[in-house]
Design a protein that fits this description.
The chain has 370 residues and is of the alpha+beta class. The protein has nine helices and 17 strands. A hairpin with a 2-residue loop joins strand 16 and strand 17.
Length: 370
């Protein structure tokens, strides 16, 4: 059984120790993390473009829980467990547009609002009412071009989890309502999901691991601010040098006014939002097992059209892909080394690793909260 005995989380960063290595290597932790973390927090499941019209639906497997998201004839967005209440058959498959959902096992039919419409050849059953056999609902909401669900009916609303993020993003000039996913890439990383999140939450490694990104941002001003359920990373884009670009040192986000900035947000436990001058990225970190993590990258742009807009989009995706592969290399190595008898716990840089400390405190809080 997963055990945090011996780990004593403290609020004082200067005195704190990291999570023990067993939290990243012991297979007993992932079932507990699913139940106490992933099933109790808001999870990205897809794009709003998949449920734009009345009758649209799509299915999603959320760490073993089958779900279906629908847009009702009344225009309301809903989500349900994709489980027929007769004998647990699926009521939907894939994605599409329908006026109702029908179980692929015995043909029970449900409206898009979850109500049972038809149970074939069920006459004569006693102590049974169709009104009591509605699909079990799940919390669902949309923000910008994204759909999120939460299996915990008592969880805080997504807007509470996001805090000031929507207002800050709007103030910085990003209109996410006008952005749409343009490309998705999935990366398989040979590490525990928490190793990948730890890595994202600090810029400490940028000068060494990301030389290209280091040229783009003003590292001296890089900072991480932590809040109840999220953290933000401030990373201003370097202004163009007065003498112009330096030969052999290409810049992706070269700007002359010095006002452009990149915004990085992480929302507990596994959602990352990256805003650059010409695009937005959403990264979802999906644990496959103790030693393997799927990282889903989606790039969102306003309609790029063709010509310069299309070229800029492709350059942004290529640059992000370069940074991601650099992160994968170090995360894979860290995971292997966490098995070494030479390592158990580490300490935090007070200047650079407050975001990692914040994340690990939340992990411990949720795992010990029954």
């Amino acid at each position: 059984m997963a055990d945090l005995t011996g780990y004593h989380p403290v609020d004082d960063l200067a005195s704190a120790w990291t999570l023990p290595a067993t939290c990243y290597t012991d297979p007993a932790f992932l079932p507990l993390e699913k139940e106490r973390i992933f099933y109790r927090t808001w999870q990205w499941v897809g794009a709003t473009s998949m449920v734009q019209r009345p009758g649209d639906f799509f299915t999603y497997d959320l760490y073993g829980e089958p779900l279906v998201v629908t847009r009702g004839q009344d225009g309301a967005l809903r989500a349900f467990y994709n489980v027929c209440l007769h004998r647990a058959g699926p009521v939907a498959s894939g994605k599409g547009n329908r006026k109702s959902l029908q179980c692929r096992y015995h043909g029970w039919t449900y409206a898009l609002d979850g109500k049972l419409l038809n149970a074939p050849e069920f006459e004569g059953v006693r102590n049974w009412s169709p009104q009591e056999y509605c699909l079990r609902p799940v919390q669902v909401t949309e923000w910008g071009p994204f759909v999120f669900v939460n299996l915990d009916d008592g969880a805080p609303r997504l807007r509470e989890m996001l805090g000031a993020i929507p207002a800050e993003v709007a103030r910085a000039g990003f209109d996410i309502a006008d952005m749409q996913p343009v490309e998705r890439r999935d990366y398989l990383v040979d590490c525990n999901w928490k190793v990948y999140v730890d890595n994202y939450l600090e810029g400490y490694h940028i000068p060494i691991a990301h030389p290209g990104l280091f040229r783009e941002i003003d590292y001296d001003q890089y900072r991480v601010d932590t809040f109840r359920y999220y953290s933000s990373q401030y990373a201003p884009i370097r202004p163009a040098p007065p003498s112009g670009p330096i030969p052999g040192r290409d810049r992706r986000y070269l700007r002359g006014d010095g006002e452009q900035q990149a915004l990085y947000y992480w929302v507990f436990p596994n959602l990352m939002l990256n805003f650059y001058p010409d695009n937005m990225q959403i990264n979802i970190i999906v644990p496959l097992d103790t030693e393997r993590t799927l990282t889903i990258f989606e790039w969102c742009f306003k309609q790029p059209g063709s010509g310069e807009g299309w070229e800029s989009m492709q350059q942004s995706i290529a640059f992000s892909d370069e940074v991601q592969r650099e992160d994968m290399e170090i995360c894979n190595t860290v995971q292997r080394n966490l098995h070494s008898r030479a390592y158990n716990q580490g300490r935090f840089s007070v200047k650079r690793e407050n975001g990692v400390h914040h994340f690990q405190r939340l992990v411990a809080e949720y795992l010990t909260d029954k």
